[in-house]
Design a protein that fits this description.
Elements (H helix, E strand, L loop, with lengths): L1 E2 L36 E5 L15 H12 L5 E5 L2 H4 L8 H16 L3 E7 L2 E2 L2 E2 L17 H18 L5 E7 L13 H19 L5 E3 L5 H4 L7 H6 L4 E3 L8 H5 L4 H4 L1 H12 L7 E6 L11 H12 L5 E7 L29 H13 L10 E5 L14 H11 L5 E4 L6 H7 L3 E3 L2
Parallel strand pairs: 1-14, 2-3, 2-11, 3-4, 4-7, 7-8, 9-10, 10-11, 12-13, 12-14
Antiparallel strand pairs: 5-6
Helix pairs in contact: 1-3, 3-4, 4-5, 10-11, 11-12
Length: 439
């Protein structure tokens, strides 16, 4: 095993840099590998009319229209979000009518050949927090630590799982959308987060039944980059049936710091996937790029199509990638007030239902990757040595992040290995890693 930094530095033709996925010369002698499992490509579904407020009065015809547009891009799945206050307005009441709305949407998606992941507790969506009244004001309960609040969430997830079991197009049940967004108003420790996730993942699995679909959870980037954030990389990479990552270009001001066309931006989803693999105990654990998008002005509209192509192609160069789910299907209508500006422009379709240039670019790239993807293991890995208090080194602006993206821009394909794993020959061999670089 080679363990060096300087020996790996080499000169590359400038034409090899950019959004393409580039293979290093160490692979020249490797024969063409066999096809790998088919990637999944989908979109996070944001109803065109009324945004998620549409759950107050669902119109099945409007839903079908949205789903037809999504399926028309050649995508194979959606991720959907009901609102927690509508599903569980009282701690001991799960509304059967609201659950039925969710089941109906899953069945409608099947009409268009779309599979569905259901997020249970929303929770947080596009800068708005949705809490049932029994968690607020006079009845305030910490949603992560109050025993009654946690028990109620477990009850909701069991109910959703039971209602969804048997749907052949169900991918699985996720605890909720980026629940770590709620920590500001619900202080919690690392051990309390671990207990919370274990309890709710078990409830979701109990509801679905053994062997039925995936049971997952998600967190925004602070879990990976935030010093001492109570949701940890270990929790993301070791709890649930696979690891989800949400690599956003505004995290750490990445796009503004490096530029929207930079390698740091165009390889960000790939980097997030490799970082997640480093924290996994199981070398074969899948990683799902569950949210990524092109928010203006971080990624100008003119750059969005190329950004989408590069993001998909570069992420597809990772072993263990489950798939990529774009955020989001439809722009937020500007008739709705008080959203951050970027939320109005994130859709593949505008608020009138017209496909945008990024939609065409995404569809073309998905078609390019369908059934024709090959990927080899990354034989070289960069060693990440950090503590919970120095996790920011692995985020945009951090020394480790910049070392990895520098190597990638030069044409290398670096994996990532935690320092604690650097001497684990069995684990390294399972990932195909033969060379370690210590930045």
């Amino acid at each position: 095993m080679v363990d060096t930094f300087a020996a790996h530095k080499r000169t590359q033709d400038p034409s090899s840099r950019g959004p393409r996925s580039v293979r290093g010369p160490e692979e020249d002698a490797i024969s063409t590998p066999p096809p790998v499992p088919e990637l999944r490509f989908g979109v996070n579904y944001t109803p065109r009319r009324g945004w998620f407020h549409a759950w107050h009065d669902v119109d099945p015809d409007h839903v079908r229209e949205d789903l037809a547009q999504i399926a028309g891009l050649g995508l194979d799945h959606i991720r959907v979000f009901h609102l927690w206050p509508l599903l569980q307005p009282n701690r001991t009441l799960v509304r059967s009518a609201a659950v039925a709305q969710l089941v109906q949407l899953v069945d409608q998606a099947a009409e268009f050949g779309l599979d569905v992941l259901v997020d249970g507790i929303q929770g947080h969506l596009s800068s708005f927090d949705f809490y049932p009244e029994w968690t607020r004001s006079w009845h305030h309960r910490n949603v992560f630590t109050d025993p009654d609040a946690v028990a109620a969430q477990a009850t909701l997830l069991r109910a959703l799982g039971r209602a969804l079991t048997g749907r052949p197009n169900l991918i699985g049940l996720q605890l909720g959308n980026k629940l770590n967004n709620l920590v500001e108003h619900n202080p919690v420790t690392v051990s309390e987060v671990d207990h919370y996730l274990d309890r709710l993942l078990a409830a979701a699995r109990e509801g679905l039944g053994d062997g039925v679909g995936l049971v997952t959870h998600s967190a925004y980037d602070a879990a990976w980059y935030g010093d001492d954030h109570p949701f940890t990389p270990e929790a993301s990479a070791r709890k649930g049936d696979l690891t989800t990552v949400h690599p956003w270009v505004f995290s750490g001001d990445c796009a503004r710091r490096y530029g929207p066309r930079s390698p740091q931006v165009r390889h960000l989803a790939e980097y997030g996937t490799e970082l997640a693999k480093a924290y996994a105990v199981d070398p074969a654990r899948p990683v799902w790029v569950q949210e990524t998008g092109a928010p203006e002005p971080h990624v100008p509209a003119a750059d969005a199509p190329d950004f989408a192509r590069a993001t998909l192609l570069n992420a597809a160069d990772c072993t263990q990638l489950w798939g990529v789910t774009w955020w989001c299907s439809h722009d937020v209508d500007r008739a709705l007030a008080d959203f951050p500006e970027l939320e109005y422009t994130l859709g593949l379709f505008d608020s009138a239902g017209r496909p945008k240039p990024i939609a065409h670019a995404l569809a073309e790239t998905v078609a390019q990757l369908r059934g024709r993807r090959t990927v080899t293991a990354r034989q070289t890995a960069l060693v990440l040595d950090c503590t919970p208090a120095t996790r920011a080194v692995s985020g945009p602006g951090g020394a480790f992040f910049e070392a990895w993206t520098s190597l990638r821009a030069e044409g290398a394909r670096p994996a990532i290995v935690l320092a604690e794993r650097a001497a684990d020959a069995h684990w390294l061999a399972a990932r195909g890693i033969k060379e370690l670089i210590r930045p």
